[in-house]
Design brief:
Radius of gyration: 12 Å
Shape: globular
Helix content: 10-25%
Order of helices and strands: EHEEH
Strand content: 15-25%
Number of helices: 2
Distance between the termini: 9 Å
Structural class: alpha/beta
Amino acid sequence: VGCPAAECLMVGDSYDADVEPATWAGLRAVWFAQGDRGGRAPDAVATIHHLADLPATLERLGLLPAPSQPC
């Protein structure tokens, strides 16, 4: 994609297959633990249970890019 890993974000529904590998590669990650599925992620990993929660989570984490600033 042409962006450094630290500027990328992975949103995945599998902690083991999506979130852990992404963080090992240096990406930020949000775990989409749909409904009540899954366990508890480490505190360093944001967790959402509904996709509608993603924008507020990104804002809380300071990860929403300025509209005119691509990576």
